[in-house]
Design a protein that fits this description.
2 strands; 3 helices; two-stranded antiparallel ribbon; single chain; mainly alpha; globular
Amino acid sequence: MTGLPTEFGVLQFPDWQGEFEAAVQENDPAKRPERLQALKVAIFLRLKTKASRPPGTVERIALNDAIQLLRRLRSERLRYLDWQEPYSLGEIR
């Protein structure tokens, strides 16, 4: 996935697309959680404004793609942490 559509470098969905692009392009594992959290907040705030400014079909599709990517990146990070720091089931409470 290369990101969301832009037209001449202008974000098509400025409410949240900048955070999406930053999360996708972040290569530093230490900074990725912060980027993912910022994306999560930006998407939440955009969805909160749906009643007053509903997204069009293209934005709904893009939001769905962004949410799915967010879930995938978060799950990849969790697997990485599990691999880095093994624990026993007794330690989880």
